[in-house]
Amino acid sequence: MNVLLRKCSLSTLVSQPSKSTFLRCLAQMSSKVNFDELVKDKPIVVFMKGTPKAPRCGFSNAVCQILEFHGIKSFDSYDVLSNEDIRQGVKEYTNWPTIPQVFFNGEFLGGCDIMLEMHKSGELIEELKKIGIRSALLDKA
Amino acid sequence: MSSDEKPVENAVRQKLTEALKPQFLDIINEGYMHNMPKENESYFKVIIVSTAFENVKRLQKHQLVHQAIQEEIDNKIHALSIVAKTPAEWEASQDVGKSPPCQGGAGL
Q1: Where is the Glutaredoxin domain (chain A) (predicted)?
Q2: Domain coordinates in residue numbering, chain A
Q3: ipTM confidence
């Protein structure tokens, strides 16, 4: 039990007792994978099918292409097809049923549809700015 | 296919209509884009316009759709593309985008 509790910081539970945080901590306790550790302190993490160089799903490919379009040369990614614990666990972690899933600085942004909308509206440039990345689109005339 | 042969699509339509009372709802079976036979009902695009999405963040709009059709998502639907707009957003733009082509996947 101590090991399980350590996976999810007690201080998080006490200081931010929102329902989503509570559910996330519960998911962490039962998960074999510590998703907090996988996503926090990393600017961009994508859970996808395949790899950025060889995506195996059109939606995952679209996310990689959007990031590339904004000049992101590399980012952390996890191929859910090669790890069933990650594939199922990330869906419980975010309470989101589909892959790909995109995180900026540990915060879940959404999947392909949301990334596309944010790209079209210009919001993605702002979100990248928040994590200290200047979008390549700002340098294009 | 007759409507009897589209149980998943029918269930999705009914549940979204009940839960979100949409002004506009379109459910597109995109199985054909993934080399699926026409009877296959596991790849969908949902376009939904509802006042339920007013003052709701983007992530939460999608979550509202997920919650309404949780059972289908858990058991039947493999991939789901969602366009969720308020009536004002829909009036401003009816662009629903085009779902990306299949990359083959792994048959998983």
Answers
A1: 44-108
A2: 1-30, 41-139
A3: 0.81
How far, CA to CA in Å, does B27 sit from each of A63, A117, B20?
23, 19, 14
Contact of A49 with chain B, judged by CB distance below 8 Å, is answered with yes
Contact A136, A71 (CB under 8 A): yes
In chain A, which among 8-27 make CB contacts under 8 A with chain B?
none
- The predicted pLDDT at position A121 comes to 92
Contacts of A126 (CB under 8 A, 6+ apart): none
Architecture of domain A41-139: 3-Layer(aba) Sandwich (3.40)
Q: Which CATH architecture has domain B3-88?
A: 2-Layer Sandwich (3.30)
Residues of chain B falling short of pLDDT 70: 1-4, 38, 103-108
pLDDT tens per residue across span A51-93: 999 999 999 999 999 999 999 989 999 999 999 999 999 999 9
CA distance B62 to chain A (A): 9
